[in-house]
């Protein structure tokens, strides 16, 4: 059922399947009846604090049922949920809240703003507010996540779509595996755009989200088996950590219930993609490429990928072209900058707060480099800003990271460029080893020399104690680079 407000859709699901599970985390399950009643009550609590149609509500809660309940309570009164990490440093959180001019912050304290504690959506102190249905409301934007931070400055990406359950949104839900009565396992952080969309569309489809408090490789597999999940959201960092479990552990779990496993958000090394296709099947593993801005997205399944190794697919929505530095479209097979647009919309898919977009005749770029083959399949390099120029040759960090990550003792890595008197820049690798590994620089360099041409090899290696990527697979190369330029001991 499409073309309802999200508020109406939630009410419809609560009436049609009141006892069906909507959210499970640990031993706790929230039914659709609970979801509808609790979001009505919490919406009234926020309205009492002055939240109204079009206001931003910053959601700074950890992965939890309350995160999703807060989001849906925003829709009940026409507010715009603005998700952020619960672990943001205070200064960055204050910058984002100021950009959003948030009417309320849930889950964190920000001076000068109305704030509610994490878990307020189900807190007993809100029990004085009525569970009854509210007048219908529509949020002018159904989400307003922040950028990934690659620009070094926070910005909001406010959706161009209101909180209306349209046929297009239903179609997107079907693509990603959101389905009534089915379970989607969500190991990713809800403040990121992908996990947010996958989780919300699953619930709006009438399905259940089996949510992990945070990613754990074996727990993710256990959730698929325990809930007979039909869909899962992944990023390649998660896929690699799962794959590096010992075989006895990894293959002891039954994943045959899976019909849709999507990965996105970062490049996937070819070796890892192939291992997963062999494991869960080419009919099950899908990849999606697109930005939070939503102008365009591509999809590719395992069968297509085997025929077009390394591709991220063809556009399912919108269109792309590849242009050189002067803005001229190039021929298939020639690398350039990826430009995208959605000519079928009568309004933009997003707007920035804290930055400006720079469209050219309706075309926009996220800064990614890539090319298309003769069949129209897109292949990606790195973002232009991440490329390392070594003696006039372009080195893509993602390619070097993929080679490093293929070593069985490596858990994560990040590759950046640092100044070099001879060649302008040198490749610097920051590597997280397995805790019991004896891998040293010489052994890793011998391993990489068999996989990378000489100019792509790291000229320096630094060992890190913690993961270089967050649970959403994001790495802030610009921040890592800035830290080492300030302390040039590396």
Q: Quick one: biggest sheet?
A: 13 strands, mixed
Q: Write down the overall mean pLDDT.
A: 91
Number of structurally distinct domains = 2
CATH-derived architecture of the largest domain: 3-Layer(aba) Sandwich
Helical content stands at 25-40%
Under CATH, the topology of the largest domain can be stated as Rossmann fold
Question: By helix and strand content, what is the structural category?
Answer: alpha/beta
CATH homologous superfamily identity of the largest domain: ANL, N-terminal domain
Give the CA-CA distance, first to last residue: 57 Å
Uncertain spans: 148-152
- Strand content of the residues, in percent? 25-35%
> Roughly how many Å is the radius of gyration?
23 Å
From the spread of the alpha carbons, the general shape counts as globular
Structure description:
- This protein is of the alpha/beta class.
- Helix content is 29%, strand content 26%.
- The chain has 14 helices and 26 strands.
- The strands form 6 sheets. Strands 3-2-11-10-12-13-14-15-16-21-20-18-17 form a 13-stranded mixed sheet, sandwiched between helices.
- Residues 148-152 have low confidence and may be disordered.
Fold blueprint:
Elements: E1 4-5, H1 6-16, E2 21-25, E3 28-31, H2 32-48, E4 56-59, H3 65-76, E5 80-83, H4 90-100, E6 104-106, E7 115-116, E8 156-159, E9 164-165, H5 167-176, E10 183-186, H6 193-204, E11 208-211, H7 217-227, E12 231-234, H8 236-243, H9 247-250, E13 260-263, H10 270-280, E14 285-290, E15 297-301, H11 302-307, E16 311-317, E17 319-323, E18 336-341, E19 350-353, E20 364-372, E21 378-383, E22 388-390, E23 393-395, H12 397-405, E24 410-420, E25 424-433, H13 441-449, E26 460-464, H14 477-486
Helix pairs in contact: 1-2, 2-3, 7-8, 8-10
């Amino acid at each position: 059922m499409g073309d309802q407000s999200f508020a109406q859709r939630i009410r419809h699901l609560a009436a049609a399947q009141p006892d069906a599970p909507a959210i499970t985390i640990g031993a706790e399950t929230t039914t659709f009846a609970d979801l509808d009643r609790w979001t009505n009550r919490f919406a009234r609590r926020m309205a009492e604090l002055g939240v109204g149609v079009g206001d931003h509500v910053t959601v700074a809660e950890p992965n939890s049922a309350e995160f999703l309940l807060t989001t849906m309570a925003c829709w009940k009164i026409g507010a715009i949920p603005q998700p952020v990490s619960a672990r943001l440093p205070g200064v960055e959180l204050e910058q984002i809240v100021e950009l959003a001019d948030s009417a309320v912050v849930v889950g964190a304290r920000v001076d000068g703003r109305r704030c509610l504690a994490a878990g307020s959506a189900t807190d007993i102190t809100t029990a004085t507010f009525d569970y009854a249905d509210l007048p219908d409301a529509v949020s002018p934007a159904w989400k307003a996540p922040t950028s990934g931070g690659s620009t070094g400055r926070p910005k909001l990406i406010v959706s161009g779509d209101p909180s209306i359950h349209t046929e297009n949104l239903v179609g997107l839900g079907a693509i990603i595996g959101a389905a009534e009565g089915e379970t989607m396992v969500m190991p990713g952080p809800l403040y990121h755009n992908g996990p947010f969309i996958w989780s919300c569309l699953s619930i709006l489809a009438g399905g259940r989200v089996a949510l992990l408090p945070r990613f754990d490789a074996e727990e993710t597999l256990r959730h698929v088996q325990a809930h007979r999940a039909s869909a899962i959201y992944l990023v390649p960092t998660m896929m690699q950590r799962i794959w590096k479990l010992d075989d006895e552990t990894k293959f002891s779990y039954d994943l045959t219930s899976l019909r849709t496993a999507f990965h996105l958000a970062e490049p996937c090394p070819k070796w890892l993609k192939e291992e997963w296709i062999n494991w869960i099947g080419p009919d099950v593993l899908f990849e999606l490429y697109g930005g939070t801005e939503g102008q365009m997205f591509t999809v590719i399944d395992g069968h297509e990928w085997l025929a077009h190794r390394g591709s991220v697919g063809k556009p399912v929505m919108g269109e792309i072209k590849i242009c050189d530095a002067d803005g001229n479209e190039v021929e298939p097979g020639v690398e350039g900058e990826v430009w995208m647009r959605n000519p079928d919309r009568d309004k933009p898919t997003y707007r920035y707060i804290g930055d400006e977009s720079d469209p050219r005749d309706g075309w926009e770029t996220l800064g990614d480099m890539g090319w298309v083959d003769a069949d129209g399949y897109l292949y990606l390099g790195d973002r232009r800003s991440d490329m390392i120029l070594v003696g006039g040759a372009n080195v893509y960090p993602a390619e070097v990271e993929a080679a490093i990550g293929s070593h069985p003792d490596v858990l994560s890595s990040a590759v950046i460029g640092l100044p070099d008197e001879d060649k302008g820049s040198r490749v610097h690798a920051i590597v997280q080893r397995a805790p019991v590994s004896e891998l040293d620089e010489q052994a890793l360099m011998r391993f990489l020399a068999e996989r990378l041409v000489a100019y792509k090899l790291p000229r320096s290696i630094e060992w890190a104690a913690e993961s270089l990527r967050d649970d959403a697979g994001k790495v802030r190369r610009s921040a890592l680079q800035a830290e080492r330029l300030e302390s040039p001991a590396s």
